Amino acid sequence: MKPDLLRMKEVALIYLDRSGGLQKFVNACKLYNDSKQSYAIFRFPILINPSDIIELDATLGNYILHKPVKATQIFQSVCFTAVKTLSLIQQLQTEAQMSIVLKLTHLPSLPSYIFSLCKFPFDYTSQRFYMAEGIVVAMSTVTKYTQGARFVCCDENCAFSEGFQYIRVHTPGATESATVRNNFVCTLCTSPLREDMKYRVLGDKQIIEIVDAKAISAFQGFSSSKTPFRFQSFTVFLRDELTNKMEIGNRYKVIGIPVCMPSCIQITLCLEANSIHLCNLTGPSQISEKFKYLLSLTSKSCWRFTALLANSFASQVLPPGINNTLKLVIFALFFNKQILSPFCRMTVYTLYLALCKEQCCYCNCSNFLFCF
Ligand SMILES: [Zn+2]
């Protein structure tokens, strides 16, 4: 074994021990061992803090951030040795049966880790982690996908016609056919492999559409009533414990591995999520003096400031049709507060009717709400 690889395995074990991950792993093994069910695949999500790993060993830290598949193999080997040494799971036979999923707590706050669709050329073939920030605009229902499957050699005389040598598990970005299909061959005798269906493991999958947060900022205030438009979104795949963790309209930071998915004649760039974090946005830190002055001028009325803002800015930021509804709501507030005399109410009602025609009945201007 290369000294580097041995060193990285040592560090992985030290990290697991110090972070409490080893104890969680042992507990998870106990659950598998106590179960009466027979398993082909044993899945273990492991929480990884890249900063802590980099402090222990820069090479392993670099593997986790830039070569996650190889890093996963290192943890898989360490965990398999632990299971065998401590006799944690009696059923477990081969290392291939260990499905280790590294879950990252965060990524370094550096531009090279930001998933940006504005940057050219795209270099998202390296299968490493990026962080995207965006708002969820659509989501699918939760469906099933093949998390793992067991294959055996068709030739009964071959040593691999039984046992757990051929275990295939889903890796980030892989399609269903990469995990299960019917043209795999035995590496020992080149006979075709067949799937042992009773060991197939299904997981949950959900597809999310996200609009980049920067696109929202760029188009803030833009309104076009004539030409309907939609923001360009990109697809995020959520699997297993991440499904149903996102809500439409919320803003999230998603750590994941970019995937190029072939669709018809095009290649679509997607992101397979590794971890998601809800963004808690605070309002603007400073409000301009003019705005504060406006608020003080209108403070005698409970509705005037809001109405003024709605009249000035709502048409630019609201989708077509909503602006009129907003103005109607403000009218409705008039009535409820009973701040108007019966005569004025009649006037407002006349204006209300005019609003339905989108025109002021007094002077034909479009700002009839503030005309009187
Ligand atoms: Zn064979």
UniProtKB/TrEMBL annotation:
**Could you tell me the superkingdom of the organism this chain comes from?**
Eukaryota
- MCMDC2 N-terminal domain span: 8-107
Q: Where is the signal peptide?
A: none
Q: Which GO terms fall under molecular function for this chain's record?
A: ATP binding; DNA binding; single-stranded DNA helicase activity
One GO BP annotation is: double-strand break repair via break-induced replication
Record's Gene Ontology CC terms? nucleus
Question: Where exactly are the transmembrane stretches of this chain?
Answer: none
For this entry, the protein name equals MCMDC2 N-terminal domain-containing protein
